[in-house]
Design goal:
Strand order of the largest sheet: 4-5-6-7-8-9
Number of strands: 16
Shape: globular
Structural class: alpha/beta
Strand content: 5-15%
Radius of gyration: 23 Å
């Protein structure tokens, strides 16, 4: 068997295949310190680690964790799913200091978007994170989309394109690699790929003038990574979802669009892949199709999962199902990105950007005043009409306006209401206090619309705050659309209600 040199050690081709198989994995783990198995795998060739909300208590703790990883491998890629807005891992327990994409799209100031991404990237880099699975470049052309929504800059492809490019530029100026997602575009779907395989039946012509426009902009802006989507697009490939499609990843993304950076899969354990193919076979098919890195660990986050995927790739090479050259090329691209992050310039703190998230959230507000609305003189009652959140957002991150309103209007109380009796229950709980009804994607939840009907009929002075997509018509004497549910969006809305702020 041929022997190859690597540094001061020598290893044979069998060892090289095994190391390459580990190199292309991006696993997660549990706990706020690195487990022994993860450190051991880094020594064996693992080159990337994903961190999630469960791994983070504070910025200081995260910095200590990433330092622990780099003590084992100094060029490790530490990835995070930190979109800002509704999807935050860095501030999973408090809500994000940055508004999400839809709020930035509502302002439509690309320079503001660049500044927000730069400051977010600087904070990630300070914690030792150098790869962000963001931004979402999906064109949210289907307002009923259950998983994208406010994670998109908007429904117009040109708007999404200019803000995607600005976000990539800002994030990477901080030394954090952007991973633009979800290729070839998850916006026109009615199914969450965490749960099943979404399907987009648009023609190839529509895809090129709508879905692909933001990805072309991201590539032109130099995005270092692109994340694939687990969606079936028959106009591109009638049989396999994008993550597993050679036509989508190699022919279209690499060939037609000319992209030469890292291709990362969305979570391989999501049911769109795991349910139909299994994670081992799905991993092999993804690498064969042109993916370079396998994201896993949002759900499965243990050493056994890493071993299973590593062994599946090694077995596929030995059987001839996966060309050894394809695996080697994928591993090379992972190492190339790691090299870029090691030399990318760091962004120094800029006092002018310290509060850029709140500045952006304030600018993103759309306020409709039907009647003159004076600041409240008495405590309020905040009725949060709470829908079930999707898996990407998660249920652990707080949202709404109650925390800030309680500070600004002492004595204010809050309650969470769901379902057909939500309106009546909120009225009873409010007593004589004025109601602030907080909704999230009212247009997708008929029970929420009925609850608002009940509230406004009984209490015509009810203030309405929409923290999702503002698709429903404004109503009530004061209607505030925040274009997202980040903590700073709630702060900005509360300021308007209380009659304070900038």
């Amino acid at each position: 068997m041929t022997t190859f040199a690597s540094g001061t050690a020598a290893f044979n081709s069998k060892d090289r295949i095994t190391r390459d198989a580990l190199t292309v994995l991006q696993p997660g783990f549990t706990g706020t310190t690195a487990p022994d198995w993860l450190l051991r795998r880094l020594g064996e060739g693992l080159a990337s680690v994903g961190v999630f909300g469960r791994n983070i208590v504070s910025s200081e703790q995260l910095a200590a964790l990433t330092a622990q990883l780099r003590a084992e491998r100094d060029d490790v890629l530490v990835a995070i799913d930190e979109e800002g807005g509704d999807v935050t891992r860095l501030e999973v327990r408090t809500g994000s200091s940055f508004p999400g994409n839809h709020a930035l799209g509502a302002v439509d100031d690309p320079e503001l978007t660049r500044q927000v991404a730069l400051e977010l990237g600087r904070r990630l880099a300070a914690c030792g994170v150098n790869l962000n699975w963001a931004p979402s470049a999906d064109v949210n052309s289907n307002s009923a989309n259950p998983v994208i929504g406010v994670r998109s800059f908007g429904a117009d492809q040109d708007l999404v394109a200019r803000h995607t490019a600005a976000y990539v530029t800002g994030l990477q100026a901080a030394g954090v690699a952007a991973c633009t997602k979800h290729f070839p575009g998850h916006g026109d779907t009615a199914v969450d790929s965490h749960l099943a395989v979404p399907r987009i039946d648009a023609s190839a012509d529509i895809l090129h003038v709508r879905e692909l426009v933001p990805f072309r902009a991201a590539i032109a802006a130099g995005t270092r990574a692109v994340m694939s989507a687990h969606i079936l697009v028959p106009a591109l490939d009638p049989s396999r979802p994008g993550t597993l499609s050679h036509r989508v990843l190699t022919d279209l993304l690499r060939g037609e669009l000319g992209y030469d950076g890292l291709i990362v899969t969305d979570g391989i354990e999501m049911q769109a892949i795991a349910g139909a193919y299994g994670i081992e076979h799905g991993t092999v098919l993804a690498i064969a199709a042109g993916a370079d890195a396998i994201c896993v660990g949002g759900g499965l986050s243990d050493d056994e999962t890493v071993r299973r995927l590593r062994d599946a790739l090694v077995a596929a090479v030995r059987s001839g199902e996966l060309p050894e050259e394809r695996l080697a090329d994928a591993a090379r691209r992972v190492r190339a990105l790691a090299s870029w992050t090691a030399t990318a310039p760091a962004a120094h703190p800029d006092p002018a950007l310290t509060d850029i998230g709140l500045v952006a959230a304030r600018r993103a507000l759309h306020v409709t005043r039907v009647d003159p609305c004076t600041p409240p003189a008495e405590p309020l009652f905040v009725a949060s009409l709470t829908p079930e959140t999707n898996i990407a957002v998660g249920a652990e991150t707080p949202w709404g306006v109650s925390a800030e309103l309680t500070r600004l209007v002492p004595g204010t109380e809050t309650g969470s209401f769901t379902g057909e009796d939500a309106g009546r229950a909120a009225i009873v709980a409010a007593g004589e206090r004025r109601v602030v009804a907080v909704v999230r994607d009212e247009h997708r939840h008929p029970w929420m619309t009925r609850a608002l009907d009940t509230l406004l009929k009984a209490r015509p002075d009810t203030i309405v705050v929409e923290m999702g997509l503002p698709q429903a018509a404004p109503r009530g004497p004061l209607y505030i659309a925040t274009h997202g549910a980040a903590r700073v969006c709630g702060v900005a809305a509360a300021e308007v209600i209380a009659g304070v702020g900038a």
